[in-house]
Sequence to fold (270 residues):
Amino acid sequence: MADTTTAGGASAPSVMPIIEARGLAKDFVIDGVPVTALKGVDLAIRKGEFISFVGPSGCGKSTLLNMVAGLLPQTAGEAFFEGRPILEPSRQVGFMFQSPVLLAWRTVEENVLMPAEVFGIDKNTLRDRARSVIEAVGLGSFRQAYPRQLSGGMQQRVSLARLLTYEPKVLLMDEPFGALDEFTREAMNLELLRITQAAGITVLFVTHNISEAVFMSDRVVVMTPRPGKVSGVVYVDLPRPREIAQLQDPRFTELNFTVRKLLGQGHDTH
Ligand SMILES: Nc1ncnc2c1ncn2[C@@H]1O[C@H](COP(=O)(O)OP(=O)(O)OP(=O)(O)O)[C@@H](O)[C@H]1O
Fold:
């Protein structure tokens, strides 16, 4: 079997990484007791890469994403976007949560245009782009619908359209389709790949699902139980564009097993 794993940090690419973490760490204080959520994470992610993070519950995946989003200050180390320290949220780094977070009293189009108000952009300059993105995520005929008239999967499409309208370079996705049924989730994943690969968007994707991580990614970062560290990185050498038929590829099964083994090793050591 080809060597697909590296221990420790995700190795540095030759060009400047779009996202980089150096010794990133986070301690919380819970009931007066310090808890180390994340410890010494090193990462270097290239533009256009699709990276998944898998690890046991509580290993700090969301914490890591929140720090990269500029939503949470780190305790030690540093995170960089295009070589500059990340100090606050930026329009270029979009964050997608597990639940859609839509305003019930606004239409799909108005929800998609809502961040314009926050960014101080004239909505009318974005309306055409918003409409074409809404079309691209398959909601062309629901532009004037309200969230309550949409299914969970459709609401997540609205969230995705809302992010894509502002042309982010990086998407941070924390189990974005975790609440959806398997069939819808698979369709959403394929659509996400199609859209982000075509636009060259870099994706950092948190999931609990090993085969989803392998199917989507260029690299799967496996984390140890808390305090979360990188226990290994699996390189996914399946050709792109990814297709459902690849789920039957023996190489796909092999890579799933490699990730599973790394996860198991993490458990053994703690
Ligand atoms: N705001 C917070 N205040 C205090 N502790 C926190 C906070 N956010 C996270 N933690 C703690 O940090 C650790 C990591 O949490 P985090 O949500 O990042 O893990 P996770 O890997 O995303 O978990 P899951 O897979 O269950 O979503 C946990 O022990 C959690 O209790």
